[in-house]
Design goal:
69% of the residues lie in helices and 0% in strands. By secondary structure, it is an all-alpha fold.
């Protein structure tokens, strides 16, 4: 096992490098980058991004834009702008350097987790991620934990009671819950329980209350989960079906195998057969899907929930970065989540060996 862990850790380097390289050159060579967005801003086609520039840079660029001169530039909408202004914008965003130099500079900085400054926010990328991370960690960890804690026992019980009324009714409820879009259910929760037309039981904004720091520790815990109740409910409502049915089918497949029949024939108790033998074998396929499920819940799955409940997390930050072509944030979030995914994948492999000691990755 130690040799396998070392090989996997070493494999993270080329995998991460390949993902970052492909995305860097695709994004950097695509039209509509930050320079073009700023040029469109200066030409009066505003979409709000100019206000995100730091004050001094914004003043300098706006004053320079008064100098109009025809120029042959490769940027869309650059006609009528002073060539020196174009150069100033390129320098502001680092596009005055060749693409290969920008690429190797990014790699050099990312090794030390130096993600630079945001193009359109007056802060470093590290500060922004640090500020937004508690929201995404809260949504990602708790939603994944709730889904697994409910789906796995439910799937096991459905397998043991296959074809019964409980199996049929629970399948119906799970399928109906999955059919409800999470964002629509979130809106319904807001209307019903967050000061809409009915009850005002839960807060609609933020992860904690304004007076959180003044509360005793036990009230801080209550306040934290009080704010998370509706977002987590909306986030997990449609997440049970796949895992529940996967658990059920996996256990059904194992229960019908010869070794289970033999164990029961020898007089072993059903619970011992189920949890000492069937459980370990059936859980392997479920564990394999954990890394993807966690990353999905942690990042992409929470975007609309963050917007509806005014939770400013990594999902919303990444979406706005893509919208505004804020490359430092785009690449930093990609780097962090790719790295997380690779490490979680390694951890899931280690859990394999804990669930089923027969697995030996050293021979892989």
């Amino acid at each position: 096992m130690p040799s396998y862990i070392i090989r996997r850790l070493l494999l993270i380097i080329p995998t991460l490098l390949g993902i970052m390289t492909i995305n860097f050159f695709i994004v950097q060579t695509s039209p509509g980058g930050p320079v073009e967005k700023m040029i469109l801003q200066l030409n009066g086609e505003s979409d709000g991004t100019l206000e995100r520039i730091t004050g001094s840079d914004q003043t300098d660029l706006m004053s320079s834009s008064s100098i109009e001169q025809e120029t042959s530039s490769s940027y869309k909408g650059s006609n009528g702008l002073d060539p020196e202004l174009i150069k100033d914008i390129e320098k502001l965003y680092g596009f005055d350097k060749p693409i290969l130099e920008r690429y190797f500079l990014m790699l050099k900085n990312y090794i030390t987790f130096d993600f630079g400054d945001s193009f359109f926010r007056n802060a470093t990328v590290f500060e922004l991620i640090k500020e937004k991370l508690p929201v995404s960690i809260s949504l990602g960890i708790w939603s994944t934990l709730i889904i697994y804690l409910i789906s796995i026992p439910l799937g096991i019980k459905k397998a043991l009671k296959h074809g019964s009324k409980f199996d049929i009714y629970s399948s119906t409820i799970v399928v109906v819950a999955t059919a409800i879009p999470g964002f629509l259910f979130a809106i319904l929760l807001v209307i019903l329980f967050a000061g809409g037309n009915y009850f005002d039981w839960f807060p609609l904004r933020g992860l904690v209350s304004d007076n959180f720091d003044t509360l005793p520790w036990y009230k801080q815990i209550i306040d934290y989960f009080w704010h998370l109740t509706l977002p987590l409910t909306a986030l997990v409502i449609g997440g049970f079906a796949t895992l529940t049915m996967l658990t059920k089918n996996s256990f059904l497949d194992e229960i019908s195998k010869q070794y289970v029949i033999t164990a029961k024939a020898k007089g072993l108790e059903e619970n011992k057969v189920l949890y000492n033998h069937v459980f370990r074998n059936a859980m392997l396929i479920i564990i394999s899907g954990f890394p993807a499920a966690f990353i999905s819940m942690f990042f992409t799955g929470s975007l609309l929930i963050e917007v509806i409940f005014s939770l400013d997390g990594i999902g919303l930050l990444g979406f706005e970065a893509t919208l505004y072509r804020d490359y430092p944030i785009m690449f930093a979030t990609l780097y962090i989540f790719t790295l997380m995914g690779l490490f979680i994948s390694l951890i899931s492999d280690l859990v394999y060996t804990w669930v089923d000691p027969r697995i030996n990755f050293d021979k892989v």
